[in-house]
Design a protein that fits this description.
Elements lengths: L14 E7 L5 E13 L2 E6 L4 E4 L2 E4 L4 E5 L5 E6 L5 E14 L2 E14 L5 E4 L1 H11 L3 H20 L7 H15 L1
């Protein structure tokens, strides 16, 4: 995601849909959200409890408020759930997250970094799906190498509690989401 087009962002408080697709272009998740703003880490979206998450064949409302960070690198999206959700941090390893017509889009690359607070701890998830899809879709070797290294690095950074993977950074954005929802 390039920083060049910051003017392509909607005004804070604007409803947006974050549209995911797969490597082959097929549709994947669509998450209803609110654009919250930007900080040194990137753009932040908020999703109030009850808002929709939909993909072909599956739909569910957000269980709790959550915020998603879209860093300028465009290679991952960090979702942090309000407590007491069983998963605090869920990082989608991605490709080509960018803004199109004032809404974010990206390619979900199947690999995820998860920090659960229900006893499962911190781990890299969906390695089987990653292996299956990289073979089926022919992910280029340089993409595979880069994203596998990224997943390991993000797992380390989340475990160390480095900002923006600490509690204070996303909690400030969760507070902003609550204030917007209350208004």
């Amino acid at each position: 995601m390039t920083d060049d087009a910051v003017s392509d962002r909607p005004q804070p408080g604007t409803a947006v849909q974050f549209r995911w697709r797969k490597w082959d272009g097929s549709p994947h998740w669509v998450n209803d959200a609110i654009y919250l703003g930007r900080d040194r880490w990137g753009d932040w979206l908020g999703q109030p409890a009850g808002w929709a998450n939909v993909r072909p064949g599956l739909s569910f409302p957000a269980e709790v408020d959550n915020v998603t960070l879209l860093p300028p690198s465009g290679d991952h999206a960090v979702t942090v759930h309000a407590l007491p959700h069983r998963v605090r941090v869920y990082i989608d390893i991605a490709w080509d997250i960018r803004w199109e017509e004032r809404a974010p889009t990206g390619i979900d690359m199947d690999l995820d970094v998860v920090k659960a607070i229900d006893g499962r701890g911190l781990y890299i998830d969906d390695r089987d799906e990653w292996d299956e899809h990289r073979a089926a879709h022919g992910y280029p070797p340089e993409v595979v190498e880069r994203l596998e290294a990224l997943a390991v690095d993000l797992e380390r950074r989340v475990g160390a509690g480095e900002a923006p993977f600490d509690d204070a950074t996303p909690d400030a954005w969760l507070a902003r989401l609550s204030a917007l929802a209350a208004a």
